[in-house]
Amino acid sequence: MSEYAIEVVDVWKKFHRGALHDSLRDFVPAMAKRLVGRGPKPTDLEKGDFWALREIEFKVKPGEALGIIGPNGAGKSTMLKILTKILRPTRGTCSVRGRVGALIEVAAGFHPDLTGMENIFLQGAIMGMRSAEIAQKVDEIVAFAGVADFIDTPVKRYSSGMHARLGFSVAAHLNPDVLLIDEVLSVGDMAFQERCIERMKQFKHQGVAIAFVSHNMQAVAELCDTGVFLSGTVREIGPANQAIGAYVRSAAQQTASPRGGPIDIVKSELLDEAGESAVSVAPGAAMKLRVGYQVHRPISDFHMRFILYRSTDGLKVFDGNLRSEDLGLDGLSAGERFTVDFQFRAHLVRGQYHVASYIFDNPTHSPISHLVPAGLFAVSETRTYGGGVADVELKCGGVVRSTPTPA
């Protein structure tokens, strides 16, 4: 038997845009071709066909969590539906071993006319559990979902958040060997999302294999051991932060202000302490953002703005300003070129970050030029657990032990 709970090998999935046969005239010839063996092969693309997934491969062991990330339309939900056998791959194999708990769409698998309680027993039966087993878990499921006041109400009257809470709670409490979770958790409130992440961490410790589709990069970084960056095919696979970094870099469309103001930002580079390109650094590492400028018209009163963001959720970590007079740059003339090194230390915990550079006119407080992102980097460390932003340089100040007094 394989050591993997989830095993995906060379999976391809084809879809057709629009109606496959919009008239009897189209349908009859197509069926005739199939009957005489002249129809298209599964791997052929006919008019209107497209590959939603191509050459997808990954494996997940018990006790591991895999994050599946990528832009909208990348095939993430399609991949999860193949794992749950809602869809069949056009080509390739997909194996999921053991009892599966899945939440891939809000209210998926719920019967709208049945109450919340009745749907709990229905879902348990679908997962192969006896009524007595389900009954032992009911109170836990209802309490976690926070729908006790509505548990005897038909679920068609539930909000999307209530659907998601009950759906996750059912999937998470009926002893799954494999847990498949889609982005539907985003409809829950912040407290519920945190409970879900903590619950999935418990599952990992208990040996449950998890496949987690999400646009919340911080949740993926916090929960997952491995990441797969999908965009029709596998663009990156590896440690979660590595896959997230590849996704962030691909999604970071650099924007710059239109040329023609008094000063333009023309280039930037992010450097480490040795003067090399900074890609991954340790907490507290010395760094510099080197920005190049071109002056088009005389200017004397402005300030430069440096902003540091956590890329996974857009959290603004730091926002600082330096005035032109402090930099010795008052009274610039047309045609001048100059560079500024913004020096800082990465007192940050593990994650993906990026910096932005701006120039503002002081008298009018209006922006003159900007470059976003001006640099991307990752912080790597293994000391912290459960997220955060700032590295506070935690150390032990000493241990005092007392000797027990004899009885």
Can you tell me about this structure?
By secondary structure, the protein is α/β, with parallel strands linked by helices. The protein folds into two domains: 245 residues, Rossmann fold; 125 residues, Coagulation Factor XIII, Chain A, domain 1. Helices cover 24% and strands 33% of the residues. The chain starts with 5 loop residues before the first strand and ends in a 28-residue tail after the last strand.
Major beta sheet, strand line-up: 5-6-7-3-8-9
What is the level-2 CATH architecture name of the largest domain? 3-Layer(aba) Sandwich
Query: What number of structural domains do the residues give?
Result: 2
Mean pLDDT: 86
Might you state the CATH topology name of the largest domain? Rossmann fold
Counted by DSSP, the helix tally is 9
Order of helices and strands: EHEEHEEHHHEHEHEEHEEEEEEHEEE
Quick overview of this protein structure:
The protein has 2 domains: 6-250, 3-Layer(aba) Sandwich (Rossmann fold), CATH 3.40.50; 255-379, Distorted Sandwich (Coagulation Factor XIII, Chain A, domain 1), CATH 2.70.50.60. 24% of the residues lie in helices and 33% in strands.
Core attributes:
Coagulation Factor XIII, Chain A, domain 1; globular; 9 helices; Rossmann fold; six-stranded mixed beta sheet; alpha/beta
